[in-house]
Design brief:
Distance between the termini: 41 Å
Largest sheet: 7 strands, mixed
Number of strands: 11
Structural class: mainly beta
Number of helices: 0
Shape: elongated
Order of helices and strands: EEEEEEEEEEE
């Protein structure tokens, strides 16, 4: 069974940086696109950024220029480098991946990691 496990969340001051990681574990799977979403209290889940297997990236408007998404295909891991953090970046961040395991291809989600930006 494939699982996504996130790490790297925490508390950071405004203007600071954090790096999130998300690793896929299991066996017999192939990962297509990967990405990060976030959900703040009382708001809908929104796209932070996505990356194709070949490395093509896409970012949400609110993080463009501040966040960088990358991946290591050999490690089945996606990263999110977050710089110049602001209060509005406070949210639970979820890893997402498009994975084929055996004959089934579907989206997988991580359990979420809390990022809190303080003033």
């Amino acid at each position: 069974q494939v699982q996504l496990v996130e790490s790297g969340g925490g508390l950071v001051q405004s203007g600071g940086s954090l790096r999130l990681s998300c690793a896929a574990s299991g066996s017999g799977f192939f990962i297509y696109g990967m990405g990060w979403y976030r959900q703040a209290p009382g708001k809908e889940r929104e796209l932070v950024g996505s990356i194709s297997r070949g490395g093509t990236t896409n970012y949400g408007d609110s993080v463009e220029g501040r966040f960088t998404i990358s991946r290591d295909n050999a490690k089945n891991t996606v990263y999110l480098q977050m710089n110049s953090l602001v209060l509005e970046d406070t949210a639970v961040y979820y890893c997402n991946a498009d994975i084929q395991a055996l004959t089934i291809r579907r989206e997988y989600w991580g359990q979420g990691t809390q990022v809190t930006v303080s003033s």
